[in-house]
Amino acid sequence: MAKIIAGLGTSHVPAIGAAMDHDKTQTPYWKPLFDGYGAAREWLAETNPDVVIVVFNDHASAFSLELIPTFTIGVAPEFQPADEGYGPRQVPVVEGHPRLAWHLAESLILDEFDMTIANEMPVDHGLTVPLSIACGQPEAWPFKVIPLAVNVVQYPPPTGHRCFNLGRAIRRAVESFDEDLKVVIFGTGGMSHQLQGERAGLVNKAFDTAFLDGMTGDVDRLTKLSHTEYLREAGSEGIELVMWLIMRGALADDVKEVYRHYHIPASNTAAGLIVLENQP
Ligand code: DHB
Ligand code: FE
After folding, report:
1. pTM, whole model, 2 decimals?
2. What residue's CA is closest to ligand 1, atom 4?
C-alpha cells in the first residue's frame, strides 16, 4: 500500500528561484532566507520519498482565462518547466507517476471531487520553485511528482474547507493504491502577499504566524477562514494558502511540526515553510 507520511508547506516566490538560478543565494539580501532552507532539505533527503504530490497553482502559464479548472491533476509521464516570459527555468524536467496519478484521478472523481485531467501541462514557478527550495539544484529531481493545480487566480477559488476535504480524499486514494510507495505532499503558495494595487507589498506577520501555528494547533479555524478574511488579512494573493489546507487534510489528524522557517522579505512577500510529520 502507498502511504502519505509527511507534508511540507512553502511559498513559491519566483524571485527565490531566480536567486538560485543566478547564483545569488549568498548575497546579504538572500542569505538569511536560504540559510533557513538547509534543515528542510536535509529532512527531505533523509525522508527520501518515492513520490511527491505537489499542490500548486498555475499563474496563467498552462491555463489562460479561456479555461479555468478548479482542480487539475497531471497524469503525464513528464512536465516541462513553463516559459513565463524569460524562457523556461533551467531546472530538470519534472517526471510524473502516471499510474498513481490515474489511480488518484479515478478515486477522487468517484469520491465526488470533479478533477480535470491534464495529459500535458507546463509547470510554472508555482511548482518548480518549491522543488528548488526543497531539493536545491540536483541534476534530476530525486522523486516522481504528481502535480495538482488549484485555481486561486480567478474568483471564485475553492474554499479552504473544500480544499481540506480534498486533502482527506487524497489520503484515502493514496492508501488504496496497490504498490508500496512512500509519498510526501507539498502545499505551496502564500504566505501573506499582495502583488498589485494600493496595498501592493502587504505582509501580515501576525496572520502568517497564526496560520503556521494552526497547522498543528487548530486546523478547524483555518478551514473556516473566508475568502474575505484572506483578502483583508493576507492580501489579494494570500488566498494561495488554501493549497496548504489540501496538504494538511492529506495528513493524519495528529501531526508533529518538525521544522519551520519564516522570513521577510522575499521580493514583495513573506516567505514561509513548514514541515509536518504524521504521528505514528
Ligand atoms: C510573486 C509571485 C507569486 O506567484 C507569488 O506567489 C509570490 C510572489 C512575485 O511576483 O513576486
Ligand atoms: Fe503565486
Report:
1. 0.98
2. 13
| Residue 12 annotated in active site | no
Of 77, 97, 44, 14, which is closest to residue 267 (Cα–Cα)? 14
CA of 195 to the centre of ligand 2 (A): 9
**Confidence (pLDDT) at 125:** 98
18's CB contacts (< 8 A; 6+ apart) are 24
**From start to end of 11-127, where are the E strands?**
51-56, 71-74, 78-79, 94-95, 116-118
Q: How far apart are CA 153 and CA 12, in angstroms?
A: 14
* Helices 227-234 and 205-214, axial angle in degrees (round to 10): 130
Rounded to whole angstroms, the Cα distance separating 89 from 97 reads 22
Q: How far apart (Å, rounded) are the C-alpha atoms in residues 194 and 93? A: 30
Whose C-alpha lies nearest to ligand 1, atom 10?
14
The pLDDT value given to residue 25: 98
Say whether pLDDT at 280 is over 90. Answer: no
- Residue 193 annotated in active site: yes
Q: What structural domains and CATH numbers belong to the chain?
A: 3-278 (3.40.830.10)
In angstroms, the Cα distances linking 9 to 20, 33, 99, 160, 164 are: 19, 15, 25, 15, 14
Q: Which of 137, 140, 142 has its CA nearest to residue 21?
A: 137
Which residues does 82 contact at the CB level (< 8 Å), separation at least 6?
61, 62, 88, 122, 123, 124
* Ligand 1 atom with minimal separation from the 59 CA: 4
pLDDT exceeds cutoff 90 at 268? no
- Residues 227 and 72: their CA atoms lie apart, in Å, by 21
The one-letter code for the residue type at 194 is Q
